[in-house]
Each structure stands twice: as structure tokens, then as C-alpha cells.
Amino acid sequence: MTQNFTFSIYQTVQDLPQKWDEVAHSNAFLQIPYLQVLERSAPTNMECFYIGIFENKNLIGVALAQYLNLNKLESFGERDKCLKTHIRNFVFKNFASHALFLGNNMITGQNGFAFSKEMDFNSISKILLNCAQELIIYFKKKNIKIHIASFKDFYKNAANQLKDDGFASFYEFNTQPNMIFELHENWKSEADYVNAFSKKYRDQYKRARKKLEEITFRELTLEEITKNEARIYQLYHYVAQNAPFNTFFLAENHFTTFKQQCGDRFVLVGYFLNENLIGFHSLLLNTTVLETYFLGYDDQVQKEKMLYLNMLYNMTAFGIEHAFKKIIFGRTALEIKSSIGAQPIQMSGFIFHTNPLINKYMSKIFPKLEPTLKWQQRHPFR
Fold first, then answer.
1. Which DSSP state fits 31?
2. pLDDT tens figures, 151-162
3. Domain match, 228 and 354 both
4. Total domain count for the chain?
5. Which residues are CB-neighbours of 70 under 8 A, at least 6 positions away?
6. Is the pTM of this model over 0.90?
7. Are the C-beta atoms of 228 and 256 separated by less than 8 Å?
8. pLDDT tens-digit profile of 292-337?
9. Alpha carbon of 315 to those of 55, 194, 259, 309, 320: distances in Å?
């Protein structure tokens, strides 16, 4: 273990040490209310571990790890039906079905760890690797062989430093970029944002908003989310099932649990047509950052009413009107997200296979498994 640093791995939130949230204050995705959401409504094929990092017995860091059993997954995603997809699914089922993630596989962004003091990346890489090795041993004792271990979502500067230190021998992969919208400090309202568009994208905005005229939308209370839980899940599940690739599906009570645990910091907006719930989007208020979370919609209404694009506009308006500095829109739907102003920010992960022979050829195998991505970045502002 790195000099003076030790760690403990916890399986329940109630066992976490005091001052956990104090150390995690910069990231809501590592704080106890969100960890309780994971504990109470994690995907059925996921097991979460909470890691406390200590220096001379003082808690100075927190981290999250997740084990995924891909054998329990109903589908890896049903949008793409090509041969490459069938090969990818076969490989994942047979050679990567037991996966360990250091970080949060459910969201996009550098959300895997937080420290209360400045840490060098050499120490961070050693701590994370030691945590991974201890968890691999833990599962081995349960007769579960971890196939792959992945250290997830680092921005370029962090990735470069990790690569120079403890992760030098691991395969670095870059999947779809994270779409991030840095909000202009002079924008105080949605009108300021729209006025910054070029004519083409202002016309797109007007066209989309006109399509929304028959639809009402509002933030839902805990009672409303609970009442509509089955319908919300149905809308989410349709979108998730038709994604190009999936490693989990949320539990049906996930959004209700999120609202119960995080209160006003979690916002779920419902969209109604003739009083029927036909879509929703959700957000997490994370200090100065607005994190977009899962959404869902009725596909027929989405196509006719440009519902997804209108959700993106609404999330942006919320971010501006509540003075957030940036909005994390995550991966997927890159082109349409760029059309509302988000920029692609490349993120890296590191991965190794516990089979030395497979690991040796990871740089050749992994790129062949990634979904093919072709998109054109849009530039909506004057």
C-alpha cells in the first residue's frame, strides 16, 4: 500500500465512517444520499462498494466501485442488429461477463473518487489499483472470477498523469465523448440563450417549441413520481433498451428512491399530453454543475413533437435560470446535443483483463467491440 495510505471497503452505507460527506462535498455522486439511492435501487446485476481512504487513520478520500454481472442482463441494447453487435455480445457474455468498475458505470464524468487534500496521481493510481486487487480477491473467495477491471472516466489531464504513473501498462480507451455545455455568464434567461443562436438554429428552436404547444410539463413531486412509478419506468426502459449498448437497467423504484433520498437536489420533470405522461427528464444539482440524468419518452410522441430536443432546451433553460456554470449532458445523441450548444470533451478509461493472454491483445480486441460512431458536430451560435 502507498506509504501512510490505507483503505477500507464497505458494503453498506450505514458502515461508512464519519466525515464521509465532508470529504465528498465537491461531488453529489459520492455523498451518502446518492449512495443510499444505489444501495436501495441499484440495477439487479450490480453490486456497489464504498471505499474510504485514510492517511494515518484520518479519512482523506472516498471512492466508489461497482461489480456488474452481465450474465443477468436481459439485453445489451437492441438498436443495432449488425454482425459486429452479435460478435460483441458473444465476447461480453463469454469473456467479460464479470466486470469490476472503479468509478460509476451509471453516469458520465470523473465521479469515481474525491479527496479532501491535494493528491498526486501516482498515489491515486496505486490506491485505485490496490482497491481493485482486493475486490478481485474478494470475489475469487466467492468463486466468482472477475474478467475485466476498468478505471472509468478521466478528463485528459488526469488520464495523461495516470498513464505516466501506475496505469502505464493498462489499455487506455476512449469511447464517445462527454457532451458538456459551458454556460455563458451573461445569459440570465432562456431568451438570452436563444438570442445567441444563428438564424438556422433559432428557427430550429422556434419549430421545436411550436411542436410542444399541446404538451404541458412540470416538475413532479415525490408523491407524483411514486404514483407514476410504473409509467416512468416504462418510458425509461424503452429508451434504454433501444440504446446502442447497455450494461445495466435501472430498478423500477429507482426514480422514487432518488427523490426520497436527495429531495430538492433531484429534479424529475414530467411531460403530459391530454393528461397522459408521455415523457420525462431528470437532473441532479451537483454544486455549480447541473448533471443530466436518465430520461424516457413515448417514441411516437417524441417523433411527432420533437420531444427529445425540447427536453434538451428545457434542461438548458433550467441551468441558465438557476445560475449553473455548466451542464453535463453525457454520452449518446452527440449531434443533437451539439445543436443546442454542448461541446464534445474526450474522456478516457483504463482497462485490464485478468487473463494475461487476452490482456496482451486488449489494444486489438477492444476497438473491435465498440459501436461504430459517425456524427457531425453542430455550431449553433453566431
1. S
2. 999 999 999 999
3. no
4. 2
5. 45, 76, 92, 93, 96, 97, 98, 99, 247
6. yes
7. no
8. 999 999 999 999 999 999 999 999 999 999 999 999 999 889 999 9
9. 40, 14, 18, 10, 9
